[in-house]
Specification:
The structure is a homohexamer.
Chain A: H1 17-35, H2 39-49, H3 53-73
Helix pairs in contact in A: 1-3
GO molecular function (chains A, B, C, D, E, F): peroxidase activity
InterPro entries (chains A, B, C, D, E, F): Hexamer_Tyr-coord_heme_pr_HTHP, HTHP_sf
Keywords (chains A, B, C, D, E, F): Oxidoreductase, Peroxidase
């Protein structure tokens, strides 16, 4: 098993849409760490991808896909 | 936690399909800010990506994915 | 708020699958305009992306994602 | 309105999974025609994209997204 | 109609998650054949894409999208 | 049939969100092996893609798509 998922949330339940978005960001980054667990390597890559429009758009897309999952898990934070 | 999500909406509920689309655009941009919070860097990137067809199509795709989430959250604004 | 969404539909309801597909095309283009509202810039880009296979496939994909949303909104135009 | 959707299906209902897949292929191609209606231009592009692995994979992905929509529209052709 | 879908499955029902995954792989490949039916051309492309990380990741993504469809068709192989 | 899916899980049920994420990572990698079963080739590719931001983001996206499937299969690990 991949064993670098430290800090993985116990639940997909989030109190607010914003907390859910933060969770989606976290899952996106854990997905990167699943392939590259070495934080030093990731830090060396940051200057490039964080100033590259295509990479920023692609990162936002991964967050959007995870946010679909988190929003469904929280029934879209709909108040009945 | 990523703490640059200022202005995050309190709810995914939107009164109209257009308001929902505006929300999807907002979430797409918040997803970019989650990786690059520095507005100056983003402004320097804008001339390039805003005149690049591939980047414009990719941005539209992120909005489309978030719009799926928002539309489902609002039950597709169906009137019963 | 992004204020270039003129002509945004009032509803996601469409009478036929084809009308729904037209709506998905419209939403895809509004997603591009959300990032680049200047029609002149978009027209200058057209000769390139409209003759580029990768861009045409990517555009078709954005329409496919929006069509998922529109089809679900119209319960897949199933006749009961 | 985009008026090049000649031959658009009247319904998303398909008798079999294979007929549904054919429909997904058709919708993918109509999505390309929505951006580039000129068949001559598309034919000139074909030699390149039909021998390019990345383009073939990307095309298959658009079919996969439309197939999700068609399969849901036909309740996955489940026999009760 | 595209007529190269020989061997298309009669049903999306699969006995196990693994059989469902095999089906998703098959659909992904049929999606490629829908654009390029010539097996010789596909074989000539294989040495390149099968040793290209980006192409391998993109292929895995198409399988993932089809697997969503197959898993939903089989109600996630949940035992009640 | 593709016969390199050794170690494919018997079920999509996972006890926790983290276990589900591990399963999504596994499925993503099995999707790569479906196209390139030769572990030696994959190992030779690793130094490149594991230090390439675009490839890392794309890998994270495949995990995100599979995680949607696994989360739905486990009803989002919601406690009733």
């Amino acid at each position: 098993m991949t064993d670098m998922l430290s800090g993985f949330p116990d639940s997909l339940v989030a109190p607010t849409p914003e907390a859910g978005f933060q969770l989606a960001i976290k899952l996106s980054r854990l997905g990167v760490k699943a392939t590259q667990p070495d934080a030093e390597v990731l830090n060396r890559l940051r200057p490039k991808y964080s100033r590259d429009a295509d990479a920023l758009i692609a990162s936002s897309q991964v967050v959007a896909i995870h946010y679909q999952t988190i929003a469904a898990a929280n029934d879209y934070w709909r108040e009945f």
